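To illustrate the input format used throughout this study, we show a single complete record. The first block contains the structure-token representation of the backbone; no residue identities are included at this stage. The design step must infer an amino acid for every position from geometry alone.
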């Protein structure tokens, strides 16, 4: 991840090498730093989503999507501090082990 600023990074998983995506995990990122745990996961097999609204590594809400597609940006209003993730004061207070540097 080489982008600067705030963004969402999605990692997609398949059960077979050239098969359809079975799951996706979405992470918050800021200035080339990726959070360790996803804030949102989607199981495309069951059309269920799993939201970690307070980003503590535990699921806070689940549900089923009517469509087999997901836009993680639609979930940002339900994520605590999503609009502040790139706040310089908060970044300087975070411990290095809470983030993963990706190059």
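Output of the design step:
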């Amino acid at each position: 991840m080489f982008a600067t600023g705030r963004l969402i990074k999605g990692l997609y998983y398949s059960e077979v090498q050239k098969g359809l995506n079975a799951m996706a995990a979405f992470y918050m990122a800021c200035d080339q730093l990726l959070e360790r745990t996803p804030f949102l996961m989607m199981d495309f097999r069951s059309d269920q989503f799993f939201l970690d609204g307070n980003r503590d590594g535990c699921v806070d809400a689940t549900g089923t999507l009517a469509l087999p597609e997901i836009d993680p940006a639609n979930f940002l209003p339900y994520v605590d501090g999503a609009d502040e993730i790139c706040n310089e004061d908060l970044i300087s207070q975070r411990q290095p082990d809470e983030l993963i540097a990706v190059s």
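Structural context for interpreting the output: The first helix runs from residue 88 to 93. Residues 89-103 have pLDDT under 50 and may be disordered.
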